[in-house]
Design brief:
Blueprint (H helix, E strand, L loop, with lengths): L5 H17 L4 E5 L4 H12 L8 H4 L7 H4 L5 E8 L7 H6 L5 E2 L8 H17 L6 E4 L7 H7 L4 E2 L5 E2 L7 E8 L18 H5 L5 E3 L2 E2 L5 H7 L6 H7 L2 E3 L3 H4 L26 H5 L3 H7 L9 H15 L4 H10 L5 H15 L7 H14 L7
Parallel strand pairs: 3-10
Antiparallel strand pairs: 1-2, 2-7, 4-7, 5-6, 8-9
Length: 379
Amino acid sequence: MGPFLEQDLKQLAENIKAWGKALGFQQVGIADIDLSKHEKFLQQWLEKGYQGEMDFMAEHGMKRARPDELLPGTVRVISVRLDYLPTEAGFARSLKNKNKGYISRYALGRDYHKLMRQRLKKLGEKIKAQCPLEFRPFVDSAPVLEHALAEKAGLGWTGKHSLTLNRQAGSWFFLGELFINLPLPVDQPVEEGCGSCTACITICPTQAIVEPYVVDARRCISYLTIEQKGAIPEEFRALIGNRIYGCDDCQLICPWNRFANLSVEEDFQTRQQLHQQDLLDLFAWNEQSFLANTEGSAIRRIGFERWQRNIAVALGNAPYSDEIITVLSATLPNATELVAEHIQWAIDQQKAKALDDGIEDRTTQRLIRSVEKGLPRDA
């Protein structure tokens, strides 16, 4: 690669940000690749086993903190933000009605991976048309410390729940990266804005945020309902409530999300067959129905068996119903071993249902009150 004048690189960086926004990204920043300060924390996190069954987190060692080992020649990372909050988020309604399934808001629309990767590729090709360039796009597809890179690129700061927070956009956005071998001028990190707030730590139903900025994935509802392949540990089942795919509690309670923007992406808008649907209706799907209704959705990756497992847990946490016990009992004989274990637990829960729904219900009520006060706004 030939030499570039500093002024040329500065102008190119400005052009890249304009091109990125023209492609639909809400924010574009540029970072260097020095993530050495994160290596110790990553190693400690892995040594404590906080990654759970996510073996891919440990397989690549410290490559996650060394972008030039992932793509030799990389000297900069272009980090992008894409807002995803759907217009019909319906947070409070979905959490309040325990007979309906709650799905994390990012998964109500189309899977974001392909959309973001295609746009990042277009951005790379646009840059390459101006100068020689080696590039590679990443969207949760390789060992990349995306939040650390977003922080370095000035997209926001890392909140105590370990997600990236932005003063104008909260945390309802996806991140993507474009690794490049061009020494562009870098952006500066922004000032941290969490202060003494610990709302996300306090509200977590399973207390998965074991200390500020550290999440034990093995306790996280998103992990338990998505990444966990086997049985969900019994100690967490009642705390999961009606969350059948992911969890948004730590984002919902965050004061910065009152500034969150609604997504303009049609692909991220709510699919009605997934939104505020009765648990019994969702449980009635066969595998063919599951595949049809989750086509193009991130939900499909967990497969039909784990989908049934999750809904069985939610049915166990629903208010007492003769119909629920009847449906669960009828499904039990032909269920897989994994699903059968959770169906039996749900039946036992239904039979022992008491007036007080316990800790999970009280924390959820607090969360609902916060959402109904306008967090986030307009959603």
